[in-house]
């Protein structure tokens, strides 16, 4: 008679928060995305940056919230930098001087971009500037291939030791909001001449 070794409990991807907390924060990010103006050339994305140990919201952002072709994550970081009286590039140094060292989590409705067609710094690179401070990125959906065929954001972040965690259940709403203002693809039924 062999005795089975009990299996260890499954590895959890949640930290101190409950799944409901993650969904609520993703819903808050979705609310931010709804504030973004619909355009055929952008996704409407929302983001919420929190202090992970307390759940305190530090900054929110949405696509095109700030002047220029700004992304949601970029707006979060720019607004947090402004709160600290520094440029976005100096945010990591300022936060690293705080005691205790903050542990940040970013909730974004769409996987952070690894490439910007505008030539602006991709959101993944902005996140990597805060490496050691941002431990987790929570995403609602991966980036559709409409503008950038191969977004390597998740792989790049995970390669740098930042966990990327999917928060499920809102995908349809996120994609509906993200693509508002986009021209629907033509189908044979809509292009036939009569």
Automatic annotation (TrEMBL):
Q: Which BP terms in the Gene Ontology apply to this protein? A: nucleobase-containing compound metabolic process
The CMP/dCMP-type deaminase domain extends over 20-164
| MF GO annotations | catalytic activity
Which parts form a coiled-coil structure per UniProt? none
Query: Which stretches are transmembrane?
Result: none
Q: Which InterPro entries match?
A: CMP_dCMP_dom, Cytidine_deaminase-like
What protein is this chain from?
A: Cytidine and deoxycytidylate deaminase zinc-binding domain-containing protein
Organism of provenance = Gaeumannomyces tritici (strain R3-111a-1)
């Amino acid at each position: 008679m062999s005795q089975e070794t009990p299996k260890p409990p499954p590895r959890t991807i949640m930290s101190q928060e409950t799944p409901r907390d993650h969904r609520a924060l993703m819903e808050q990010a979705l609310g931010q995305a709804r504030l973004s103006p619909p355009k055929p050339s952008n996704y409407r994305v929302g983001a919420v940056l929190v202090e992970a140990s307390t759940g305190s919201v530090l900054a929110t952002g949405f696509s095109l919230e700030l002047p220029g072709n700004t992304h949601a994550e970029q707006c979060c970081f720019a607004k947090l930098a402004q709160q600290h009286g520094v440029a976005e590039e100096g945010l990591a140094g300022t936060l690293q001087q705080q005691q205790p060292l903050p542990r940040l989590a970013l909730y974004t409705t769409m996987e952070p971009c690894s490439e910007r067609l505008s030539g602006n710094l991709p959101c993944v690179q902005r996140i990597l500037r805060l490496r050691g401070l941002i431990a987790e990125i929570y995403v609602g959906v991966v980036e559709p291939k409409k503008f950038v065929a191969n977004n390597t954001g998740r792989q790049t972040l995970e390669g740098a030791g930042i966990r990327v965690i999917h928060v499920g259940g809102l995908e349809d709403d996120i994609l509906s909001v993200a693509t508002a203002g986009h021209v629907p693809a033509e189908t044979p039924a809509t292009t036939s001449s009569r």
